[in-house]
Amino acid sequence: MPVSHTRYFGTIDYRDESVVRFPHGLPGFAEETRFLLIDQPVNEPLVFLQSLSRPDLCFLALPVLAVCPGYQLSIPAEDLATLGLPEQPQPEIGAELSCLAIVSLAEDRPPVANLLAPVLIHWKNRRAVQAIQAEFGYSYEHPLFAEAAPCS
Amino acid sequence: MLVIRRRAGESILIGDDIRIEIIETGAARVKLGITAPRDVPVLRNEIRLAGEANQAAAREVTAAALSRLVDRLRRT
After folding, report:
1. Torsion angle, CA of A88/B53/A47/A20, rounded to 10 degrees?
2. Which of A40, A47, A69, A11 is nearest to A121 (CA)?
3. Is residue A59 within 8 angstroms of chain B, CB to CB?
4. pLDDT digits (tens, 9 = 90+) for A6-49
5. Distance CA B57, CA B72 (A)
6. Suppose A115 and one of A44, A138, B13, B71 were both cysteines; which one would form an S-S bond, judging by CB atoms 3.0 to 4.6 Å apart?
């Protein structure tokens, strides 16, 4: 089994089925194309996107539906093409398509989730993309614990 | 900010070698064609914002802060 150094979990073994590929990297991290999705019961519902080329780079993320139960997808055509999905109709979040919101934790402010640019993973081919969804007015900085904060 | 009205087919020049053409206008969207030298980065603003949000999210998080977050997520 391949082994990877990780930011939060030391050195871990992983299965190739857990590796996702971002053909174009992520905004701000264009060189990072291979990530490991780490989901462990101990940290549930939080999941981790660990870069396979940079051990110090690991994003925290949450399933978007855990942050915003009525979350709507409007994935741009070029991102659907990257994922190997047809342009119509818009796909649904489910077992084949994960949709994760990257979480940002800072000392000086409450935790926020990026609902505007979710990470989509198509598990059939393990291709992934961070899509920017301009359509529904979601925020880059949706507060995770604000009282009754609407998602959009 | 300079505000200019343009129709489809018209262009704007910025400096000597950047040209922005209005290709098509619709009710909610405008299609632009941008011609610029290779060394001029052309970026949709939201891509830059997404990059900044990712940079912020990639900062170090302590084990204590992580476990506090998980606890809190499970309580809500």
Report:
1. 50
2. A47
3. yes
4. 998 889 898 888 899 999 999 999 999 999 999 989 999 999 99
5. 18
6. A138
